[in-house]
Amino acid sequence: IYRSKHMESGQPHKRRKTSDANETEDHLESLICKVGEKSACSLESNLEGLAGVLEADLPNYKSKILRLLCTVSVFYLIL
């Protein structure tokens, strides 16, 4: 009988999806927070790259992306 790793460990398959979702959300947060940092690329180039990533992830992470953008923009307004 075929058994997946998840069945053998007693962990449901959803746990992996949750972990992947958390990793993706953490990655999005990191990208958004770092877009204005000094780098070899121009701010315009960084924003274009970020826009491409956000556009691709928007269908699955819309609320997280919007929340992060609002949080970051408020943070920079305070500075």
UniProtKB/TrEMBL annotation:
Superkingdom of source: Eukaryota
Annotated InterPro entries: ARM-type_fold, CBP80
GO biological process, one term: regulation of mRNA processing
Region of interest (Disordered), ranges: 1-24
GO CC field: nuclear cap binding complex; nucleus
Entry's Gene Ontology molecular function annotations: mRNA binding; RNA cap binding
Name of the featured protein: Nuclear cap binding protein subunit 1
Gene source species: Rhinopithecus roxellana
